Amino acid sequence: MLRLFANLVIVLACIFLIVGNAGPSFAQECPDPTKATNASAQQKQPSKRYDRALPSYRDKSARYNLALVGDSLIELWQPWIKDSFPTRPVMNLGVAGDTTQNALYRLDGLNLPDFHPADVVVLIGTNNLGAKTAPCAVAAGVVAVVSKVRALWPGAHIYALSIPPRGKRYAFYEDVRIPANQFVASSLAEMPGVTFVQMNDDMLRCGKPSDKECSNYKPDHLHFNEGAYKLITSFLAAAGLQL
């Protein structure tokens, strides 16, 4: 725990440094990023799928070699998991509605002593986007989740996916999402065993931001259809993940 805390302090310091380089006005407006990493204050009940799957994951954890960690964008991948990763037994640890804080709380309570994945995919942060949330705070939460995954499974290679576009015109809080992804990319660049995967936003949303419907998304303009998961799989493969 002391080692994890020390690593987290270093990560937060790096994010403050990045924010500081972005300009004094932005740095002054950036709130304390520890708000996005306060797992103890963000307890949340897991989904029914997660509740049902976890005992089986625990009993048979030795057979799995790939984990997915995140929110609904990870959990709802489940119907296409076998198509996306045909050679990999995948443990889907995503929970719908989770923020970075929720994910940290969940990972804190994860009891999988026999699970030693070769790779972990992380997709988290969309539920932290909002008008009153600064990009550095969102980034701090994402980086904290990646750091927690590193502490849990030090032998795994981690693939951290960028926060994808969503919402009306697929442009929900772009002023928060885009710089948050940039901060995460910079913060993770020097972390060993971690690859930041910047997804192609225009490919995901079927072009530049517009009012047209994109078949990669469900009507809520947040959750993905099969086409989006095929794209994400291709982004991961291009980044080096064995499928």
Automatic annotation (TrEMBL):
Q: Which residues form the SGNH hydrolase-type esterase domain?
A: 70-231
Picking any one GO molecular function of the record gives: hydrolase activity, acting on ester bonds
**Residue span of the signal peptide, if any?**
1-27
Q: Which Pfam families match?
A: Lipase_GDSL_2
Xref: Gene3D superfamilies: SGNH hydrolase
The domain of life is Bacteria
> What is the name of this protein?
Lipase
Q: Which organism is it from?
A: Rhizobium ruizarguesonis
From which lineage does this chain's organism come?
A: Bacteria, Pseudomonadati, Pseudomonadota, Alphaproteobacteria, Hyphomicrobiales
